[in-house]
Amino acid sequence: MTKLISQRAIASLLSLLGLLVLVFFLSRLTGDPAALFLPIDASEEMKAQFRALNGLDLPLLEQFGRYVWDFLHLDFGQSLRKARPAIEVVLEAYAWTLPLALITMTLVVIASIVLGALAAFNVGGFFDRLVSIVSLVAASAPDFWIAIVAIVIFAINLSWLPTSGVGTPWHWILPIAVLFIRPFGLIVQVVRGSMLGALSAPYVKTARAKGVRNLPIIFVHTLRNAMLPVITVIGDQAAAMLNGAVIVETIFGFPGIGKLMIDSILQRDFNVVLAAIMVTAIAIFLMNILIDIAYGLLDPRIRH
Amino acid sequence: MSNALLEVRNLSVDFHTARGTVHAVRDVSWSINRGETLAVLGESGSGKSVSASAVMNILDIPPAQIIAGEIYFEGQNLLAMSNEQRRAINGKRIAMIFQDPLSHLNPVYPVGWQIAEMMTAHGRPMSEARARTLDLLNRVGIPEPHNAVGKYPHQFSGGQRQRLMIAMALALKPDILIADEPTTALDVTIQADVLALLKQLQAETGMGLVLITHDLGVVAEIADRVVVMSQGQIVEQGSVRDVYHAPQHAYTQKLIGSAPGKGQIKTLEPDLPLLLEAKALCKTYGRFTALKDVSLTLARGQSLAVVGESGSGKSTLARAILRLETADSGAAFWKGQDLLAMSPSALLGVRRQIQMVFQDPTQSLNPRMSVYQLISEGWDIHRLMPDRNQRQMRVRELLEQVGLSAEHASRYPHQFSGGQRQRIAIARALALEPELIICDEAVSALDVSIQAQVIALLDDLRERLGISFLFIAHDLGVVRDFADTVIVMKAGEIVERGPTEQIFSAPSHPYTQRLLAAALDPDPDVQAQRRLLATAQA
Q1: Residue B66 above 50 pLDDT?
Q2: Interhelix angle for B111-120 vs B158-169, to 10°?
Q3: Inter-chain contact B104–A207, Cβ cutoff 8 Å?
């Protein structure tokens, strides 16, 4: 188990390094930040000064060397826009995205596992059909559209909830609800499919022949076996959320990492983009290790 | 209403499948009392498990549907009870064990928990269940029960897993135990142990035992009465001895007649030219020794059986000879040429001459290829017989040679029965006109009546075409009928070798003696005598 996880960790670290290289050079291809950042009538002198100030006049390789060195100290330089350390700006945004992702995924996981498992147990029945239709609609609904319609209904027409921003718990309801829909639809379907397979497994027959009640058969005997493919999808969806829900955060004016990233890209705020990408990568890296541990905890055959 | 503890009366069950309705069982009746052992005997697809599944309420409904009949337990119709009432009976009053304990135990929970759950599911406190679990593990002969409770099913051997299943089933001292092919996946010596354990436990608890099996030997060893099923119907029932010695129904007669191990023993003709020779082959996987100094010779037209239990290295031997596996040391010669040093192109030529037939034709035949494609594929690989018409004619010939017909060529494997599929696999091997066919448990998965036919077919090919056979098997009866020479393997080593006659009549190595003693004879009297002898010796 420890060996498995350390192997995975090393592989992930290598890809993290690859990402470091890739991101740096790709971001230098999108245009000159001096031209974008300074007013359109800025003199060449001002631009040169700006470049010198931010180390943009150095040879590319030297810029990269510095960047790697700084990365190892978790120093991503100053945000060009906000005149503060980039890492600070990013971590601040993460402080919003992390709870949003955590709350949403917790709700998604609980709801989809319970509904998917029960649907599989009543396969072909009314409840199963209902869950199948709802999950199909949820999995295919475009979130930008849902977000806007939700604002129109709940914020404008009914005036129950604020349209955007943060501040009160009420502000969280719409972003969470909209973010919930798609992963929920997807994971319900995976749980249902995986449970269908597991419910026809021979050990379920044994449990029934033992006289075990239905609920423990579903949630104790079968679910744990059915969780392995589900964990993979949960990890995938959680990673997408850690990346920042760009559209949802933008629509709801939610100051998370997704919104920060898109803003920084539009403003050529390299340091923030780099910091955001690397911090996100580290977060996903940590989450993958969590998933590997979850695999091991669920299935003793992986552990031994 | 009868006085039997459990009675199945006029049960009919249909399965509604995509290909139409299948009458799984029709009008089946049997009954059992405490202390009795009833065997339900039948081949695959005979519906022998269906009535037991109906008793346990584990039929999948749909596709199954109970059309008619009643199942009485202590005079109460189980089929008229609520699910909750039946749940309370399952495990506590009537328990069941299954064929493949690895897949019937939950892979992600410790076995101790799974056994204890039998008790907690019926309202016993956890502390009591834990204590009793240790007793049970002790009783069924699992070493170090304190350690074993925390282990998972995959950490036990096949025989131990079945012991665990038995411990679980007997936790609440049920009145009836239903055992569905409990020893089919086990080696003969382990099978003997498990059957002996079941008998002891039955004597201790006085439970009734319903044994579902396809194996006449198991019936002879353990049952009092037998119900013979064919195509969903009971064709005959009675005491085991009566049914064996005076079978009334044609099907029972055929079944008993095809039991292996009764035919004339073959002898090897002397002075046949040498075909294959292996010298001191060794192969290890990590710390596991699969082959240790294995040497053998095989002459043209000879049928050499390699006998041994699982893990004895039989299949590795075949794979090493075919160079599907590289031996660590040793040598092998095919008609004097060094097999292990051969160039890839020369090896391709030899591989045409040595063909293999595997255990499970369902898995060894590509389901997306038609029979014609399956049989003719070897010609593509070896660039033989480019002419299409000639190919079609030859495929037709081959199909007829193995007892199928020409119009089968366009069909796909799933349209055939297990025995027919194995015939296709044999036709595929024959297409390349091999000089040696390696059969790796080639008849193990087949029903006895079909097994007998396939053995007869192989024997016929050997006689008419002079093909040699390396016949890997664990079933001694089949080996006795087919081979002229036998090699006995244990833990990667050859422990005994000799003419079939000698191995079966005067085995010298203790392991061979144990194997032969553990093999079950279909004759209940022979089995009874052996039991007497064994107790006298003990």
Answers
A1: yes
A2: 20
A3: no
| Residue B206, CA distances (Å) to A211, B37, B64, B119, B198 in order | 22, 10, 33, 20, 11
Question: What 3-state DSSP class applies to A156?
Answer: helix
Q: Among residues of chain B, what percentage have pLDDT more than 90?
A: 26
Indicate yes or no: CB of A208 within 8 angstroms of CB of B107.
no
Listing DSSP states for B473-516 in one string gives ES-HHHHHHH-SEEEEEETTEEEEEEEHHHHHHS--SHHHHHHH
**Spatial CB neighbours of B538, under 8 Å, sequence gap ≥ 6:** none
Cβ atoms of B33 and B26 closer than 8 Å:
no
Q: By mean pLDDT, which of A61-75, A85-99, B275-289, B425-439 is the weakest?
A: A61-75
Average pLDDT of the residues of chain A: 84
| Element holding B37 (H helix, E strand) | strand B37-42
Residue A108 has pLDDT above 90, yes or no: yes
For residue B440, give the nearest of B336, B340, B321, B347 by alpha carbon. Answer: B321
Q: Tell me the per-residue pLDDT of A129-149, one tens digit each, with 9 for 90 and over.
A: 999 999 999 888 888 888 888
Residue of B50, B105, B108 to mutate, testing the A interface (most A Cβ within 10 Å of its Cβ): B108
Residue A266 CB burial class (10 angstroms; 0-12, 13-18, ≥19): exposed
Quickly list DSSP for B283-335. EEETTEEEEEEEEEEEETT-EEEEE--TTSSHHHHHHHHTTSS--SEEEEEET
Contacts of B58 in chain A (CB under 8 A): 205, 208-209
**Predicted confidence (pLDDT) per residue in A159-184, tens digit:** 788 777 777 888 888 888 888 988 99
> Considering only CB atoms, which chain A residues are within 8 Å of B154?
300-301, 304
A196: contact with B, CB 8 A cutoff: no
Q: Name chain B contacts of A304, Cβ cutoff 8 Å.
A: 152, 154-155
Instruction: Give the type of residue at B89.
Output: I
B42 touches B228 (CB < 8 A): yes
Radius of gyration of chain B (CA): 25
- Residue A86 to residue A274: CA distance in whole angstroms: 9
b/e for B162-201, b at 16 or more Cβ within 10 A? bbbbbbbbbbbebbbbbbbbbbebbbbbbbbbbbebbeeb
Which domains, ranges and CATH numbers included, belong to chain A?
A: 2-72 (no CATH), 87-303 (1.10.3720.10)
Q: What CA–CA distance (Å, rounded) separates B219 from B237?
A: 13
Angle at B171 between CA B166 and CA B176, to 5 degrees: 70
Complex prediction ipTM: 0.78
Domains of chain B: 274-506 (3.40.50.300)
Distance from CA of B347 to the nearest CA of A (A): 39
Place of tokens 């029903």: B447
Residue A190 has pLDDT above 90, yes or no: yes
Report yes or no on whether pTM surpasses 0.90: no
C-alpha distance from residue B18 to each of B22, B77, B367 (Å): 10, 31, 19
